[in-house]
Amino acid sequence: MTIYDCPAMSWQDFLNIPTGETVFNHGASECVALANLYNEGVLGGGFVQVGSALQWWTNGNVAAVHGFDRIDSSPQVGDIFIASGDLYNLPFGHIGVVVRSWDGATFGTMEQNVGGEYVSRHDRTMANVDGFLRPQNQAPLQTAPPALASTQRQAGPEGVFRREAPSTQSARLDGDLEANEVGNFVNWVHGENVNGNDVWFQGVSGNWFWSGAFTSQSVDGLVDVTPAPPAPEVPIIPPAEPTPTPVETTPAPVEPAKPKPENIEHKEKPVSTPSAVPTSPEHLKAALDRQAALASTVKPADLGSIITNNKARKIVWAVYGIAGLFIIGIMGGLTAAQWIAPEWFIFSTGVYTAISPAFASLAMANIDTKK
Q1: Running DSSP on this structure, what letter comes out for residue 270?
Q2: What share of the chain is helix, strand, coil (3-state, %, to 5)?
Q3: 63 phi and psi angles, rounded to 5 deg
């Protein structure tokens, strides 16, 4: 779409020209066409009849005839900038309109014929800038504030940066709000404090804008999404140790004082005198006879009383001895033949071994051959 000639328009209409639009007037659609549209259509000035963009600055009559002040630095919104050298066209120079004033590093512009004959927006530095023409009549730039919805805010005369987060240290994104441009917002938050103001608006795009750069910093109609501060840590107080209960102690009984030895009457106990022991030979012999009679009544232990018959005990001992010889003989024969003993033989050997202590005890208890 193309805008022909220089129709009258407001400053806001000029700012609303979309990127990619082409401006054509006075037989050209280069950078000077946009400057002519601004000077004639917005400021109401006349056609600047010079041969190139650079001559808007080098020809001193342009400022005097068309009502501009010549400025060397610190541009403001509404100024016309002229540059030459480096990325700008030589020897004709380059021209554009300042839409966001100097922030110490850059200023925002609307230009034409940068990469193509159409309108575009840029951030420029002071490098290769020859100067600025500032309109002496600022009235055309003072547009009446638009009627805004509760969620809309209008950018101030210097425009507003678009940020990734509510901080000047966060990344700056494309699409700054230009001077007087209206933006739509949904939330606000307490972010970085800039010049005593920490309120940041969040646009419908999700990006952030410092509220101090708008004509109104009111948060009415917007939602506060400031994160709640973390809860303070509650110190853990250990429970008080219980006060020990005093233990009632019972005093030890006090023994009554014993009377002194001199106050005790000593009573002598009668001492029994043993009767006289007889020492005559007759008496001694009688005592020995009595002891021998008592000893004869004590029977010696007989561990063989289980088999009370002497002959039977001798037979049992003989069988036990023969069985032992039999077992030893069989064991020796099996060993010599390298045979494995049968289970009955192993069992018999175990029984024989188990009862051997009993037979040994019987043998020792009945060592007397007379029995």
Answers
A1: P
A2: 30, 20, 50
A3: -65, -40
In this structure, are strands 2-4 and 22-24 parallel, antiparallel, or unpaired? parallel
How many other C-beta atoms can be found within 10 angstroms of the C-beta atom of residue 38? 25
Domain-embedded: residue 270: no
- Per-residue pLDDT tens over the stretch 86-116: 777 678 999 999 999 999 999 999 999 998 9
Which domain range does residue 90 map to? 2-141
Please check whether residues 170 and 93 belong to one and the same domain. Answer: no
Question: Which residues, listed in sequence order, are joined to residue 95 by a DSSP beta bridge?
Answer: 82
Query: What are the residues whose beta carbons fall under 8 Å from the beta carbon of 304, sequence distance 6 or more?
Result: 313, 362, 365, 366
Q: Are residues 183 and 62 in the same domain?
A: no
Enumerate the H helices of the chain as residue ranges.
11-15, 31-36, 55-58, 60-66, 281-296, 310-337, 343-365
In a domain, 76, yes or no: yes
What would the pLDDT profile of 180-217 be if each residue is shown by its tens digit?
899 999 999 999 999 999 999 999 999 999 999 999 99
Q: Kindly report the pTM of this predicted structure.
A: 0.49
Beta bridge partners, 309, equal none
**Side chain identity, residue 81:** F
